[in-house]
């Protein structure tokens, strides 16, 4: 499935919404306004410390691709539910987590790739309510777009699910959000 950049009030570009037999969804990287703040101080209050990625391969949450050798990136602490709650007025309570994410050290063009980002490994698709509480999740065991699309549709077909987070299985790190357009 081909994706095309679409505009969003808080982003320059991101993959377009995907439609299927069930719920439509869109993949959401970290918003540019949040990235700008994280490039100054992260959600743990630490200053951003950019470095050159000599090896490449770090999963960048700003453009939803792996870093290339020689790119300037930063590892920052990010609290996706806390930032979401600030925008929506919800209260995630104990579900407010923060964890490490890689981002470009400077603004980038955002996502431009086709397919499901980081869909080449086992991932957890964690479901959240409109209050930011975990409603369960699904382990995607089969790498590839089809298995992830099915998990997104399974989650978003449930009206009590407001959005999902895709997370790495090994460390539990946030990779990106998926929601309805």
The number of helical elements comes to: 3
- How would you state the average pLDDT, rounded? 89
Topology as a string of helices (H) and strands (E): EHEEEEHEEEHEE
Helix content: 10-25%
Cα-atom radius of gyration: 15 Å
- Spans of at least 5 consecutive residues with low confidence: 1-16
Secondary-structure-derived class: alpha+beta
Q: Describe the strand arrangement of the main beta sheet, using strand numbers.
A: 1-10-9-7-8
Strand content: 25-35%
Number of strands: 10
Task: Provide a descriptive summary of the structure in words.
This protein is of the alpha+beta class and 181 residues long. Helices cover 15% and strands 27% of the residues. The protein is built from 3 helices and 10 strands; from the N terminus they run βαββββαβββαββ. It has helices at 32-38, 80-88, 145-156, and strands at residues 26-28, 51-53, 59-60, 65-66, 71-78, 99-104, 123-128, 134-140, 163-168, 174-179. The two termini are 17 Å apart. The relative contact order is 0.20.
Outline of the structure:
This protein has 181 residues and is of the alpha+beta class. It is 15% helix and 27% strand.
Secondary-structure blueprint:
Layout: E1 26-28, H1 32-38, E2 51-53, E3 59-60, E4 65-66, E5 71-78, H2 80-88, E6 99-104, E7 123-128, E8 134-140, H3 145-156, E9 163-168, E10 174-179
Antiparallel strand pairs: 1-10, 2-5, 3-4, 5-6, 7-8, 7-9, 9-10
Keywords, separated by commas or semicolons:
181 residues; alpha+beta; 5-stranded antiparallel beta sheet; 3-stranded antiparallel beta sheet; 3 helices; 10 strands; 27% strand; globular; disordered N terminus
